[in-house]
Amino acid sequence: MKVLVTGTAGFIGSHVAQYLLDRGDEVIGLDNLNDYYDVSLKRARLARLECASGYAHVAADLADREAMETLFATHRPQRVVHLAAQAGVRYAAENPHVYVSSNLTGFLHVIEGCRQHEVEHLVFASTSSVYGANTRMPFSEHQSTEHPLTLYAATKKANEMMAHSYAHLYGIPSTGLRFFTVYGPWGRPDMALFLFTRAILAGEPIKVFNHGNHSRSFTYIDDIVEGVVRTLDRVAAPDPGWDGDDPDPASSLAPYRLYNIGSEARVTLLRYIQVLERCLNRKAEMAMLPLQPGDVPDTEADVSELFEAVGYKPEVEVEEGVERFVAWYRRYYDV
After folding, report:
1. Cα dist. 294→36, 37, 88, 131 in Å?
2. Which of 152, 220, 272, 329 is catalytic?
3. Strands of 26-31's sheet, edge to edge?
4. CA 74, 80, 83, 86 torsion-angle sign
């Protein structure tokens, strides 16, 4: 297939693009290489793709309407994996306009491109953050997500609604994937595992929010990529059992689906740190801090729907995943 993957200089996007190239697909990659974090890391991810046959890169911003229209008209992708977005929960408090430009205007340009050029299937990144104030565990796609706690989560919730409207109006098959805390080699420097590893190796204290008592469905990157590609291959279809008198948020009479994608094993932050300490063979000096505004105490994924749909089942335990990350980190930074 010819697949447009947005965010190919990013963490998840670079891995998804590599997987598709390895299996023989043609990939058009899009990224604007913004400076939200270390651009050299983004360039290094991109360099791995650009040396592969079947990869074409487009340097453009999602919010640039003309550039996006040109991309779709020139390359005419059959399917789209939309992963580019302004990430970071806390960053939104300082730079809200960036989130609207990238995550809302940019998303509109993607789904408009899908509409104008009859894309077979749009798979897009949502987030577990949409569950917001929900406290019933594990999180299920059938739950309401009307109470996001951050602007980032609100923009992702809006993406889900925008995709549904286009699926309903224009019949564009669309699948949203709610990612749960992804980690692994080539990860983002603003994520906990990266920050902790850098600080511990430098002999500096790490910031441990909520005194380390919150828990997450930490999910290794390879398990995420497997689920993304399996979902891409299964085009969203209408749910014949959908009932407007009792509407299920996870499906629709339109060709639209929402799935959780992540590990069902909930791990506390303190346990995560202990695993990292063992892999580094060093103890962490911890600065215990309260829960930050917008953070939720816990996340836990129910992925039974994605398993039923595509056979998705995460396999990498946190001990193995953290060890693989540390090995990559030492090689990449020559530590």
Report:
1. 20, 21, 11, 12
2. 152
3. 55-59, 26-31, 2-6, 79-82, 121-127, 174-179, 256-261
4. positive
> pLDDT, tens digit, for every residue of 68-102?
999 999 999 999 999 998 877 667 677 889 889 99
How do residues 3-34 score in pLDDT, each as one tens digit? 999 999 999 999 999 999 999 999 999 999 98
Report how far residue 160's alpha carbon sits from residue 125's, in angstroms, rounded to the nearest whole number.
Answer: 9
In the chain, the DSSP E strands lie at 2-6, 26-31, 55-59, 79-82, 121-127, 174-179, 182-183, 206-209, 215-216, 219-220, 256-261, 267-268, 286-289
Helix (H, G, I), strand (E, B) or coil at 178: strand
- Tokens (6 digits) for 73: 């008209």
CB atoms closer than 10 angstroms to residue 278 = 14
Please give the structure tokens belonging to residue 253.
Answer: 């009479």
pLDDT above 90 (res 295): no
Per residue in 136-155, pLDDT (tens digit) is 999 999 999 999 999 999 99
Indicate the average pLDDT of the chain: 96
| Residues 82, 107 contacting (CB under 8 angstroms) | yes
CA angle, 251 as apex, 247 and 255 as ends, to 5°? 125
Q: Is 55 a catalytic residue?
A: no
In whole angstroms, give the CA distance from residue 228 to residue 230. Answer: 6
